[in-house]
Design a protein that fits this description.
The chain has 331 residues and is an alpha+beta fold. The chain is built from five helices and 18 strands. The strands form two sheets. Strands 9, 10, 11, 12, 13, 14, 15, 16, 17 and 18 form a ten-stranded mixed beta sheet that branches. An eight-stranded mixed beta sheet has the order 2-3-4-1-5-8-7-6, covered by helices on one side. Strand 10 and strand 11 form a beta hairpin. The longest helix has 13 residues, at 214-226. The structure holds fe (ii) ion. Residues 148, 150, 206, 208, 259, 261 line the site of fe (ii) ion (FE2).
Length: 331
């Protein structure tokens, strides 16, 4: 019998461990344009200009770069009990976190999921001031909100099945007759809240933040170029095949990857059809056929367990997508 899944609303925030909080502040706040909701001696709580809850990103000072957790908001307080029971039934470790441990967030349930990630579920959140029309405050890429987590997993099909059991819809895939190389899955009515990249996992591939317009993607590239920080632009700007989004990938001072992402589409109709891309279609990762830089496939962020220890890596169980077909090679 299927376990009853918690009603997940959306990907809401992530916590990254950074080694130099001042350098991170310069990148995320001064250059990218995030809003500081609150701060302490060892942490920054940041949000986008559209965000009406306390934060989308926590940057916490630590000894080594890592991703501490990925947090989803649930629809009601009762969904916390469902989340705890759902993961306990999988035999994974869970923990109740009292309200106030994370500033701006109420009681939460954390779990080490079967894919190896520490995930959090919360309902209560402190409201934040509405800044959408404070154009006078905007800087950098003018990030609006967190859009998605992209995670590196050793078995993409297992990741797909796990998130399907949590009630996620499937919007797009990269596949061939034998192998699922990547998949994009959603709770909110967009292309995704979570996506899977095949590789040595568990690792965090990137955090995707939504901007409203493509010129905001271009502007952050111009700003980084002006400051001779062009090495922080890893891939793009470009148009994705998958998701149709206009994008750029940047690397923060610790190497954490962030995507500025705009113009994907509505997926909320019942029976929304899945768009399946051939792994041999050169347009899948970049609609204009531009090659993907190898670091984008091979480098990612270490993830931590419930106690803050790095999770061991599992080798990729499938053929690596980058060796197949496209990415600037021939069909
Ligand atoms: Fe993304």
């Amino acid at each position: 019998m299927d376990r009853q899944a918690p009603d997940i609303v959306r990907a809401a925030y992530a916590e990254l461990i950074v080694t130099d909080l001042q350098a991170s502040r310069r990148f995320w706040v001064d250059l990218l344009g995030f809003v500081v909701t609150s701060e302490s001696e060892d942490a920054l709580y940041l949000r986008g200009y559209d965000e009406l809850i306390h934060h989308n990103l926590i940057l916490t000072a630590g000894a080594a770069p890592a991703a501490a957790r990925l947090a989803f908001r649930v629809r009601t307080a009762a969904d916390l009990d469902l989340a705890e029971a759902f993961f306990a039934a999988l035999g994974t470790r869970t923990a109740r976190v009292p309200a106030g441990i994370t500033p701006g967030v109420g009681e939460a349930v954390r779990a080490e999921d079967p894919l190896g990630f520490t995930v959090e579920f919360f309902f209560d959140a402190e409201p934040a001031e509405r800044l959408q029309q404070r154009y006078d405050l905007r800087r950098g890429a003018e990030p609006a909100r967190l859009d998605h987590f992209n995670i590196v997993v050793s078995d993409v099909r297992a990741a797909y099945q796990h998130y399907r059991s949590l009630g996620f819809g499937l919007s797009e895939t990269i596949e061939d007759a034998q192998t699922l190389y990547a998949a994009w899955m959603f709770r909110k009515q967009t292309v995704h809240d979570v996506a899977f990249t095949g590789g040595e996992g568990p690792r965090l591939h990137h955090l995707g933040f939504f901007a409203h317009e493509s010129h905001q993607v271009l502007r952050i590239c111009d700003i980084l170029g002006s400051l001779q920080s062009e090495s922080q632009i890893e891939r793009g700007p470009g148009r994705h095949g998958v998701s149709n989004a206009f994008y750029v990938y940047l690397r923060d001072p610790d190497g954490h990857r962030v995507e500025i992402y705009t113009s994907d589409y509505f997926t909320g109709d019942p029976g929304h059809p899945v768009l399946r891309w051939s792994v041999r279609d050169p347009r899948r990762r970049d609609f204009w056929g531009h090659a993907v830089i190898p670091s984008w496939y091979t480098e990612a962020t270490t993830v931590l367990d419930l106690e803050g220890h790095p999770r061991p890596l599992r080798a990729e169980e499938q053929t690596a997508e980058v060796t197949v077909g496209a990415d600037g090679f021939t069909r």
